[in-house]
Amino acid sequence: MEYMEWDDTLATHAQQYSDMCIWAHGFPDVNITPFNPVGQNLWNAGPVTESDRPNPAYVVQSWFNERDYYDYSSGTCDDGYDCGHYTQVVWHSSSAVGCGLTFCPTASETEDTNIMLVVCHYGEAGNYAGEKPYTSGTPCTKCASGIGQCYENNCRPCSDPNDASCVCAQVCENCGTLDVTACKCDCFWGYNLADCSARCIDNALCGTALTYSRCNTDASVRQNCPAMCGDCFEYLPQFFACDADTAD
Question: Whole-prediction pTM value?
Answer without folding.
Answer: 0.79
